[in-house]
Amino acid sequence: LSFKMDVAEDLTAPIDEGDLSEILGNLVENAARYAKSSVRVDASEAAGEVIVTVADDGQGIADTDRESALSRGVQLDSRGGSNGLGLAIVSDIVEAYGGRLAMANADPGLAVT
Question: pTM, whole model, 2 decimals?
Answer without folding.
Answer: 0.85
